[in-house]
Each structure stands twice: as C-alpha cells, then as structure tokens.
Design goal:
heterodimer; A: alpha+beta; Ubiquitin-like (UB roll); four-stranded antiparallel beta sheet; about 25% helix; B: alpha/beta; de novo design (two linked rop proteins); FAD/NAD(P)-binding domain; 4 domains; 24 helices; about 20% strand
C-alpha cells in the first residue's frame, strides 16, 4: 500500500494501481471514453486527465495509465482539470458532432451541445476494439491503419484482417459509439463486411456462435469441435 | 547567415524588424535549423519556434503550410493533436475565405495551449507552439488576412522531419516511425520502413552500436528504448512469418554500376542503385559476401544465416554478387568498356595494424592479428585451442577475439589493454559479456617486444602504464612506468589494435587521392573520389567504423552515383547541427517503466559453441517495448528564400 493525497484527503492505495482505478474505488467521478477495466490502458481520449504533484510540481497526467506513487498528491476535480477536460471534450465534439456518445460526454463536461440527437456512429479511435481483439480474444484481427510517417492525409482508421477474425463480435460489443456493427441474417453473421456461418446448437437448434469461433476455441483449447456445438443455455 | 529578422526559437525572442526595439542582431544567438548546401530560406517554422530571415517572408502562408506538414506526422492516437491541427487549419481557411474574425487569433492560441497540455506524445506536446508565436508576433499580417488585404497562398516550401534518435543515427532511420508500426502490430510495414535506410536490418538489429539509444529522450528518465532490439524484432518476425522479396524496380535504367566489396557499404549502395533501376555487379575477394559483417563478427553475435538471408534478398533483386573476384587494380576505362559507367569502391579496412614493437616483423607461429584471426574463424578454418591466449587491445575486435577464444576452448583468455577500463572503446555490454564468460582483462599494460625462438612465439615483454593528460582522442594518454618491465607468457598472441584500409591502385593516369592515414579522399557531398566516375565510402574512407556508418555511406553513395549518372547536382536542405533536439517548450509527465528484457543464452552453452548469445523480443514483448516511444518527432518547414 502507498500513501497518497487525493482531492485533499489522505488515503491509502494499492501499489501499482492506476490513479483512475484508485479514484473509481473511492467513488470519484473521472470521465473516460477509451478505458475499460479489463483492458490495458491506452491514454487516447485524454478525458481522464488529472493533476498530480510530484517533486513539488503540479502536472497534468492521464489517470488511466499513471500508477499511484507513494506521497503523490492528486487533484481529480480542480478548476484546471475541469477546464482542461472541457477543452478536450470540445475538440472531440468538433470532430464528431453527430455521434451520441461524444455529445453526451461533451454536454456532461460543460460544452454547449446542439439539442437534437446525434445520428452518426463515428469511429473515435478509442482503440477498445483493437485491444479487445488482441487482449481478450487473442486473434489481433484489428489494428490501427494509416498511422505513421507514410500515411496519407486521410483519417487514421481501424484495419481489419479477415483471415484472423473469428466473428466473435466482441469488438461490436465494446464499441462505445456503435461504429462497429454486427448483423444477423438467417444463419449468417456479418461483421466488418465479412460473412460468418453460424452454428446451430445441437440441443435447442438456435444459431449461437460462428463456426470460425468454435473452430478457434477447439484449436486453442484442444476440445473437439463436436463438443462445442451446444450453446451456453443448453449446456 | 545574414541578418536575422525575427526569431522565437526556444522561446527566446529576437526581433530586428523595422520599427521594433533592437534586442540582438546575431543570428547565432540560439541555434535553429538552418539552410545548408546552397539552400536559402526566407523563414523557418519548426517545433521550437519561428525564424524569419528575409523581410518579405509570408508568415501566415508558412503557418498554414507548417500545419499541413505536421498533420502528416500527427498519428491521431490521442483526441487532441490531429483534431487541434484540423481546427487550426479550418480557422485559417475561414480567414483566407474572408469569413474569419480578429478574435479567432485568440482562439488559435487557446487551441495551441490545449493541445500542448493534453497531447499524448512529445510531438503533439511541442509541435504547435510556433503557430502561437506566429499569430502573436506577426499579428498584423494575420489581421491583414482577416481583412482581405493579404492572401494565404502556396509558396515554394521545403520540409524536414527528424527526432533526437533519427539525428543520432548515421543512416537517419525513421526510428519513431518503425517503432510506431511495431506498436500497432504491423511488423512487415515496420521492416519496409527500416529497409529504406538500412538494408541489413537483422544484422544491424544485432550488432549496431546504437547511438540512437544514447540520444533517446527516455534515457535519463527510465532508460532508453531498446531501439536496436526492436529493429531486430521486425527483421526476425519477417524471417519467421513470411519472407517477402524486396521490391524490384519497375522501369530499368540505362547504366551499370560496379561495386568493389560486398560489405555493408557495398551492399547498401548495390541495393539502392538496383532499386533505382540500375544494373549492379558486386565484386568480392573472399568466398563469402558481407565484408566485416561476414568475417569480422563472430557467430555468437551475428549468426551467418541472418546475414546470408539478407544478402540473398539483395541478390534476388537482380544484384549480381561475384565471389572470389578480387580487383587488384582498378582500370576505370576497362570498366567503362564493360558497360559500367560508375564504380563504388568499398573495400573496407581489413588489414590489422602493427603494434609497433620490437620483434613483431619477424614472422612467427603463434602471433596473429585480430582481423585475420576472426576472418579465418568465420571462413571455417579450424583453430585448435591452446592453453593460454593473450589479446592485445581494448576495442570491439579484441573482445570478439577473446570471446571467440573462450568458445574455441582456450583455458586461459586474457586481454592486455594499455589504458584503464573507462577508456576502453569496446561496447560496455560486450566487455561485461566477456567478463561473465571468464575473460580476464589486464589494464594499464602494454607490449614492448615479441620474443620468438626458431619461428615460434615464445613470450611477450610488457610494461606497466599510468594515465597522463588527455590526448587528441580525449582519452587519457598512457605513459610507461619506468622499471615495471615484465614478461607475460602465452601460447598465442592476437594483436587487435585497429585496422587499416588497403586501397587498390588505379590504372588510369589520375590516381586516387588518399588522406594521410591511407583512407580514400572523397567529396563529402557527392562521395566521388578524385577520379571521375569512381565513388567510395565505408571503412576505406572513414577508417574502421561501425556497420551502420558503412550502410549510411552506401546509401549516400547510391544517391551521389544516381545524380552523377543523370547529370544532376545535389540540392540543399535544412541542417539540425547544433540544434537542441531534446528540448521542447512543454513536456508531459512520463510514467517510468523501464525497458522490456530479452533472454540470454545460458552460460554453459556459451563456452562450448558459437550459439547466439542475445535473444530477441517476443512478438508481444516488442509491442510492449514499442509503446514506450515518446515520439519526439521534430518537423521544420521553410519558405524557400531568394
């Protein structure tokens, strides 16, 4: 355990925990768009920025990927922090004015937002899908494209490797804006424009998982494919 | 450099414009990226400020051009940098279209502050400051744009992109770029980018002295990124996963180039010339291609199959590599008759230097020089281990010899070095590796005489040294201690005190000009020697240097040869010499994490064979390490001057 001061209160915190984890445990509200507790922090949305005092100096840091240190002083709601968050939200709103998740966040942080509901589902490059695909699913079918010195002037985007994708749909589940969509048509699932054949549950007959996903599970766990064709409800 | 109009470089304002208070008029006050080699700039806008050199410079237009250029480097990973740049571009577009307001200038400064405070990487935190400087100090010009009295239009511009690591790299590899690709799980793209400047990525990823890592901004925070090992990761990934051929030129160019020497310099030149469409033949004296990379570095540091694979790819592009084809005498006319319009001389420095002691000239069994020893070893000659070996010298060759002797089964391996450990030129990790393996190092000891009996080495008369005042190299000069003469016995002595080039003679009337130390003289801009059509680079020009310096020379020579064959002259550019690339006006809080570790070969296996000692990153380990990059890209855009 380390000793910290958070918003003027002396607290103990688990060593190695991030400021965001500690703050949420203490029920302090810090907004995020790119954070998920089960994924490695990415530090992309810059909304979780707080102020910390180390070596006598206050500095802005993203709380999601900064671990607490013994003696650290943290301010999660100082005037500077709130102003800063609003500025970041303004930028996101400037780029994605019609995307509901962004509008809600901007409004919550004090940005003047037009009243009508957003109709778009932009990709805000939060990287939740990329990290889920790599860290949870383990197939790395998604990656950032058009980044780096050779990219053109287009927006960066998510690259999709159809050969690696198993159609599990985790990316669609975790996407905060509805950009990643998953469609079910009869015995098919369509995701990232790739069509997956669904497997029928051997007991109830419902389509419950893509064949590719079950094959992948069979391959990685050694459980024969035939034993995986029963859905969770019937197992 | 003429008079400086204005500078805000590093936040230090110098203003010599008419009607402004005189503060200082020396351009040299703060070093900024300056035009060189005949290039002229009216104004330079870079990460650390705005510098105006000509009164007629168009600062608003330069600002817009600068924003367009930095947008290419902005990765869009965090919410603020790319969006902020776009917001600024939109504001200036509105101004240019007559839809702007003077109050927008305050908004510009706010956006700059917000991006600097929130950007994730060092690029984002620093890149926008000069825009703020421009609207602040050239406000009247921007107001004129708002009022429609001034246009924002394109002039002739130049752009330079660098970073502390890029600048430190002899071959100017785009290091943050290839690291970014690895971070995003795009190893093949990373390798493609590396190969633009470094055609032996697996070799360099193992053997480079990595000056980039010394320049890394993280160095003083929590340790440099393992840049060398990331390059190795990109190369190894490709070899393991899928080995794609190198791109072959679409249109062939007229003209053939002869390359003498298949070392890193020769290979780099051959690859680049082939890529440009020229026919290339590489002539190599030895039965193995690769120069010092093949015969100067033992297998435990660089397995031969790595080198062979990378040379094989160059061969597959259509570069002809003729082994066992030494060129004793260069006859440029003869080469021309055979269709070669240019020649690149890259014969390296393969002759061991003499120790300059008594008895050395008498040929005797049991005394060899280091380069010869390593060459024999690498070419497969059987070397029978003896009991005791002495290695004279403190450089990387000495260490390579010593560690090789351990592997060959010598019982007692000792290095004699005339200075102390602090002055040893060998890489620290190599010295430590040698010591771990049982190599002894006797410091402050120098040989005086080689004693041999009937053609067989007998012993070495030595003397103790003490350190005096620093010499030209900056290292303390060793001075003999009177009366400390002593005898050191051994079964084999390897002298590894440096190498020299052996330059082939030319047959033409004009001979090659050489420097005092025997290296070839070249024009540093074109790499051409005193003989027209003959270019040179690598160790035979610089004296013994690193592999990456040789590759850089090969790259440059290919440029020089291409320009020569097309009858064009090299253009100028922006130089970052003397510019502090590490400093930036705002820096973020950096979480200390330390570099990812790699496995090393267990000790028992090191003394019995030449298996590779250092392991590489795992796929995931490389991606984790790549995340540590702070992306200290520095961009400078200049309006071309009169």
């Amino acid at each position: 355990m380390v000793n910290i001061v958070i918003n003027g209160r002396k607290e103990k915190a688990k060593e190695g925990a991030t400021i965001l984890e500690v703050a949420r445990e203490k029920k302090l509200d810090i907004p995020t768009l790119c954070y998920h507790k089960d994924l490695s922090p990415f530090g992309a949305c810059r909304l979780c920025t707080v102020e910390v005092k180390t070596n006598g100096k206050w500095q802005m840091v993203p709380s999601c990927n900064t671990p607490v240190e013994n003696g650290m002083e943290i301010a999660t709601d100082s005037e500077k922090v709130l102003e800063n968050r609003k500025a970041v939200a303004e930028m996101l709103y400037y780029r994605y004015p019609e995307t509901e998740a962004v509008r809600e966040m901007a409004e919550r942080l004090g940005v003047d937002v037009f009243s009508e509901k957003g109709e778009e589902h932009d990709c805000i490059l939060c990287g939740l899908c990329v990290r889920t695909c790599k860290e949870i699913v383990g197939v790395s079918a998604l990656s950032f494209e058009d980044r780096g010195p050779e990219r053109d002037l287009e927006e960066p985007r998510i690259g999709f490797d159809p050969n690696a994708c198993i159609g599990c749909g985790s990316c669609a589940f975790v996407c905060p804006t509805g950009f990643v969509t998953m469609e079910a048509v009869d015995d098919k699932r369509i995701i990232w424009n790739k069509v997956f054949q669904m497997t029928e549950c051997a007991v109830c007959g419902k389509y419950f998982a893509p064949e590719d996903q079950l094959k992948y599970i069979s391959r990685t766990t050694g459980v024969p494919f035939a034993k995986l064709t029963t859905c969770n409800n019937c197992r | 450099m003429d008079k400086l109009e204005f500078s805000s470089w590093n936040g230090k304002v110098v203003d010599n414009r008419k009607g402004k208070a005189k503060k200082a008029s020396r351009a040299a006050a703060v070093p900024f990226p300056a035009p060189v080699r005949g290039e002229k700039a009216a104004a330079v806008m870079g990460w650390n400020g705005l510098v105006v050199l000509e009164p007629g410079a168009d600062v608003p237009s330069l600002t817009v051009q600068y924003l367009k250029e930095i947008r290419k480097i902005s990765c869009g990973e965090c919410s603020v940098c790319m969006i902020g740049i776009d917001m600024l571009l939109d504001i200036f577009k509105d101004m240019a279209d007559g839809e702007g307001f003077e109050s927008d200038l305050a908004e510009v400064e706010k956006i700059v502050r917000d991006v600097a405070a929130n950007a994730k990487c060092n690029f984002g935190q620093s890149a926008l400051f000069p825009v703020s400087d421009a609207v602040k100090h050239y406000r009247a010009d921007f107001v004129a744009v708002v009022k429609g009295d001034r246009k924002i239009d394109g002039k002739a511009y130049g752009t330079a992109v660098t970073a502390p690591c890029i600048e430190a790299c002899p071959a100017s590899l785009d290091i943050p770029g290839y690291i970014e690709y690895i971070k995003n799980n795009r190893f093949s793209d990373s390798l493609g980018l590396i190969r633009k400047n470094c055609i032996l990525p697996g070799v360099i990823g193992r053997t480079c002295t990595h000056p980039c890592e010394s320049a890394c901004v993280r160095k003083d925070l929590d340790g440099s990124l393992s840049i060398r090992l990331l390059k190795r990761a990109a190369a190894d990934f490709e070899r393991k996963e899928k080995s794609a051929p190198l791109p072959v030129p679409s249109g062939a160019k007229d003209g053939k180039v002869a390359v003498i020497g298949s070392g890193p310099a020769g290979l780099a030149a051959a690859y680049n010339l082939r890529r440009k469409g020229y026919g290339v033949t590489v002539f190599e004296t030895l039965p193995e291609a690769g120069g010092m990379a093949a015969v100067g570095i033992p297998d435990y540091r660089l397995p031969l199959d790595i080198l062979r694979h990378e040379i094989g790819l160059i061969g597959d592009m259509g570069v002809e590599i003729a082994l066992n084809s030494g060129i004793g005498k260069i006859d440029m006319d003869d080469f021309r008759k055979k269709g070669y319009q240019a020649l690149f001389l890259a014969v390296g420095a393969h002759a061991g230097n003499r120790m300059g002691v008594k008895g050395e000239e008498t040929k005797c069994d049991g005394l060899v020089d280091g380069v010869e020893f390593l060459r024999d070893l690498n070419l497969g000659k059987k070397i029978a281990p003896k009991k005791k070996v002495l290695i004279i010298g403190g450089g990387n060759v000495a260490i390579d010899c010593a560690r090789s002797c351990v592997r060959l089964g010598f019982k007692d391996v000792e290095i004699l070095y005339r200075r102390s450990r602090a002055e040893m030129p060998a890489r620290l990790e190599e010295i430590e590796g040698a010591e771990e393996e049982g190599v002894k190092i006797r410091y402050l000891t120098a040989p005086l005489e080689v004693v041999s009996k009937s053609g067989k080495f007998s012993c070495l008369n030595c003397i103790r040294m003490k350190l005096g005042k620093p010499d030209e190299s900056g290292r303390k000069r060793p001075e003999p201690v009177k009366g400390s003469e002593h005898v050191v016995e051994a079964d084999l002595v390897i002298s590894a005190i440096g190498q020299s080039a052996v330059i082939p003679v030319t047959a033409s009337k004009k001979s090659l000009s050489v420097n005092k130390n025997g290296t070839v003289k070249v024009d540093p801009k074109t790499m051409m020697t005193s003989v027209e059509g003959i270019f040179s680079g690598g160790d035979c020009v610089t004296g013994p240097a690193t592999l990456i310096e040789a590759i850089a020379a090969g790259n440059m020579a290919a440029e020089g040869i291409d320009l020569y064959l097309r009858g064009e002259a090299a253009g100028g550019g922006l130089s970052f010499d003397g510019v502090d690339l590490k400093s930036q006006r705002a820096g973020g809080y950096v979480v200390k994490e330390g570099a990812e570790a790699v496995p090393f070969l267990e000790m028992a296996k090191r003394t019995t064979g030449f298996g590779e000692v250092e392991g590489g990153f795992s796929h995931a380990g490389a991606m984790e390490e790549a995340k540590r990059c702070l992306r200290c890209y520095r961009v400078a855009v200049w309006e071309k001057g009169k």
